[in-house]
C-alpha cells in the first residue's frame, strides 16, 4: 500500500506512531495549546455526534469509536491529510485537546507540566494517574541524572517519586543510581546494566498502554481488530487444516472438507495379530506400532509419504500395549502387558536395556524431558523412576496408578498424569508433591495429554470423550460422542494443524474425527474390518493420520486430492505394504 507524503501539518491531529514519532509539531500541530486554559481542556467522553449513535446492522458499533479508530489507522499509515480531513468533516477528534497537549508536553520534556495536565484528563482512576506520574517522573529523574544534575535528580526522587508510594522497591533501585551514576538500572528491570534514559517516544508509547483506550486509542487498533477477526474465522472454520498463505479481507475464510485426511493411501500388513497401539515420532519421520503378536515394528516415512519397515523388535513375551518415543526420537520404550519395559535404539534396532521389578509387572512407560530418566507404572499401583542404566531412583507409592497403560509427563517434567482410580485422574508434581484431581462420573479407559500440556483428552466407558483444561483449576470444556465402544480400550488423539482436531478409534471399524472447538463431527473414515484400537496423527504433517485395527492392519490416511505413486502392488489406488521397500 502506498504511503502519502505530507509536507503540510494537518490542523487538528497529534500523531503518535512507533514508526514516526518525534516532534509533534511537524505532523500534528496543536492550535496554540499554550493559550488554552487547562480547565477548558478537561477531557470528556467525545460527544460531538452523540455517544449512542451506532453503525452496522447489529447495532453494536459506536460511531464515535469507529471514526476515531479509522482516523488512527489513517495517521498510522502516513495519510495525515486524510486523517485530519476525517476529523474535520466528522466533527469527531481523535484525541481531546487536553490529551494532545499532554502528549506534546511529554515529547518536549515538560515533565512538571505534563504531570499537571495528566491530572486534568478525566476518565481515569487515581491509581492509573499515579502509575503514569511515576513513569513520567522516572524519565525526568533519568534525564536529570544523564545531564549531571545529580542534586535535582535527588530532589525529584525524594519529593516527587517517593511520595507517590507506588513502587518502593523501584525507588530504592533508583537511589542506587545516585550513589553510583555509572551503574544505572535499566528502566523497568533490576540489574547492573549501564544505560541511558529511554527515548521520550518510547515513554509516550508506554503511557499509551497505561492510559485507558477512551483517553488514547491504542496504536494500530484497527489492524489489531482485523487480525483478531481473521483469527476467529480460522478458529471457527471446522475444516481448517493447512498453513495460511494469504487471507483476503474481501471475502470470509472457509476451507473445504478436502483438508481432512479421508482417503486410505497405504495399508500396512506386517503384523500377524490385532494391532493395539501406534504412535508417530515427534519429527514425524517414523511410526511405531505394537500388536498382540508381541512384535513392535518401526516404519519409516519416505519422501513420497509411503511407509516401509525399518526394524522389527522382538523379545517381549506378552502382547505390547504401550510405546513411548524419547524426546530426540533416537530411542523407543515398549511395554508388554504387565511384563517388562524395553529400551531400543531406533537406528541400530538393538535392545539397549530391560527394566523390570521382581515379582511385579510394568504397565506403562514414559520419558522425562531430559531423556536421561524414564518413568513406569507398576502393577502394585506405584510409579517408579529409573535412570537409563536401570537404577531405580525413586518410587512413588500410594495408589498412583491402576492397570491402565497410559502415563503422561508434561514437557517441563514437573507433573505426572495417571489414572489413580477407575474414574479419577491424578496430576501430581514429582518434586513439588502438589496434587490435582480430575473426577469423572464414568470409568476411564484411556487418556492423552496435549503437546502444549494445557489439555487432557479422556476416553470413557460410556462412549464419550471429554476434553479438560488442566491449566490452573481443571475444567471440563467439551464432550465428543458418536463413536462406538462397549468392550475394548479404544484410544483417541489430538491432531491436525495446531491440534485443532480430535480423532478416535471405534468398535464399528471406523475412525471418527471432530473439530476440537465446535465439537462437530467432521469426518468418519471407513475401511477397516475390525475394531479400530488406536489412532495417531503425524505431528509434522497435518494431512497424515494412522489407525490400528483388530483386522491386523494399519491404515495410512491422507488427502483426497493426493496423486498416488504406485511402486508395488496397487488396488483401487491403495498401496499395500508387506515389509517391502
Automatic annotation (TrEMBL):
Its main location: cytoplasm. Pfam families: LisH_WDR26, WD40. GO terms for cellular component: cytoplasm. Interacts with RANBPM. This is CTLH domain-containing protein. SMART domains: CTLH, WD40. WD repeats lie at residues 268-302, 313-354, 367-389, 501-524, 525-567. It comes from Solanum pinnatisectum. Residues 1-20 are annotated as: Disordered. It is found in: Cytoplasm. The keyword Cytoplasm applies. The keyword Cytoplasm applies. Keywords: Cytoplasm, Repeat, WD repeat. Residues 100-152 form the CTLH domain.
Amino acid at each position: 500500500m502506498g504511503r502519502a507524503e505530507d509536507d503540510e501539518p494537518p490542523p487538528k491531529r497529534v500523531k503518535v506512531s512507533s514508526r514516526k514519532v518525534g516532534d509533534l509539531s511537524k505532523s500534528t500541530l496543536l492550535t496554540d495549546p499554550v493559550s488554552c486554559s487547562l480547565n477548558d481542556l478537561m477531557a470528556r467522553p467525545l460527544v460531538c455526534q452523540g455517544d449512542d449513535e451506532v453503525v452496522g446492522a447489529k447495532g453494536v458499533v459506536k460511531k464515535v469509536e469507529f471514526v476515531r479508530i479509522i482516523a488512527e489507522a489513517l495517521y498510522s499509515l502516513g495519510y495525515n491529510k486524510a486523517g485530519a480531513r476525517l476529523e474535520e468533516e466528522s466533527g469527531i477528534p481523535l484525541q481531546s485537546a487536553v490529551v494532545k497537549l499532554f502528549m506534546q508536553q511529554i515529547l518536549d520534556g515538560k515533565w512538571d507540566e505534563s504531570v499537571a495536565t495528566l491530572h486534568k484528563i478525566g476518565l481515569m482512576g487515581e491509581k492509573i494517574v499515579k502509575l503514569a506520574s511515576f513513569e513520567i517522573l522516572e524519565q525526568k529523574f533519568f534525564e536529570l541524572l544523564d545531564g549531571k544534575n545529580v542534586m535535582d535528580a535527588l530532589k525529584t526522587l525524594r519529593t516527587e517519586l517517593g511520595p507517590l508510594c507506588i513502587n518502593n522497591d523501584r525507588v530504592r533501585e533508583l537511589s542506587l543510581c545516585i550513589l553510583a551514576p555509572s551503574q544505572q538500572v535499566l528502566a523497568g528491570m533490576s540489574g547492573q546494566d549501564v544505560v541511558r534514559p529511554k527515548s521520550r517516544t518510547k515513554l509516550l508509547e508506554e503511557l499509551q498502554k497505561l492510559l485507558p483506550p477512551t483517553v488514547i486509542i491504542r496504536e494500530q487498533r484497527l489492524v489489531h481488530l482485523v487480525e483478531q477477526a481473521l483469527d476467529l474465522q480460522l478458529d471457527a472454520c471446522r475444516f481448517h487444516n493447512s498453513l495460511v498463505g494469504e487471507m483476503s479481507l474481501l471475502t470470509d475464510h472457509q476451507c473445504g472438507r478436502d483438508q481432512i485426511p479421508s482417503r486410505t493411501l497405504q495399508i500396512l500388513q506386517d503384523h500377524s495379530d490385532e494391532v493395539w497401539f501406534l504412535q508417530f515420532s515427534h519429527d514425524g519421520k517414523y511410526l511405531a506400532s505394537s500388536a498382540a503378536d508381541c512384535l513392535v515394528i518401526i516404519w519409516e516415512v519416505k519422501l513420497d509419504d509411503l511407509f516401509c519397515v525399518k526394524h522389527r523388535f522382538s523379545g517381549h513375551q506378552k502382547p505390547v500395549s504401550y510405546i513411548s518415543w524419547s524426546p530426540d526420537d533416537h530411542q523407543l520404550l515398549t511395554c508388554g502387558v504387565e511384563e517388562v519395559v524395553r529400551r531400543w535404539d531406533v537406528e541400530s534396532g538393538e535392545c539397549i536395556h530391560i527394566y523390570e521389578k521382581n515379582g511385579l509387572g510394568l504397565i506403562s512407560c514414559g520419558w522425562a524431558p531430559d531423556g536421561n530418566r524414564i518413568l513406569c507404572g507398576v502393577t502394585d499401583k506405584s510409579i517408579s523412576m529409573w535412570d537409563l542404566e536401570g537404577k531405580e531412583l525413586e518410587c512413588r507409592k500410594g495408589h498412583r496408578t491402576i492397570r491402565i497403560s497410559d502415563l503422561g509427563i508434561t514437557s517441563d517434567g514437573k507433573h505426572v498424569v495417571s489414572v489413580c482410580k477407575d474414574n479419577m485422574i491424578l496430576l501430581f508434581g514429582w518434586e513439588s508433591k502438589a496434587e490435582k484431581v480430575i473426577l469423572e462420573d464414568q470409568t476411564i479407559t484411556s487418556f492423552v495429554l496435549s503437546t502444549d500440556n494445557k489439555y487432557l483428552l479422556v476416553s470413557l466407558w460410556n462412549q464419550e470423550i471429554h476434553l479438560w483444561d488442566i491449566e490452573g483449576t481443571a475444567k471440563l470444556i467439551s464432550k465428543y460422542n458418536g463413536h462406538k465402544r462397549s468392550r475394548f480400550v479404544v484410544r483417541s488423539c489430538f491432531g491436525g494443524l495446531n491440534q485443532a482436531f480430535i480423532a478416535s478409534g471405534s468398535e464399528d471399524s471406523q475412525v471418527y474425527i471432530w473439530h476440537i472447538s465446535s465439537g462437530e463431527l467432521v469426518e468418519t473414515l471407513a475401511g477397516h474390518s475390525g475394531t479400530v484400537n488406536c489412532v495417531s496423527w503425524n505431528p509434522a504433517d497435518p494431512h497424515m493420520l494412522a489407525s490400528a485395527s483388530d483386522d491386523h492392519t494399519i491404515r495410512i490416511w491422507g488427502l483426497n486430492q493426493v496423486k498416488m505413486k504406485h511402486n508395488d502392488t496397487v488396488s483401487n489406488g491403495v498401496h499395500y505394504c508387506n515389509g517391502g521397500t
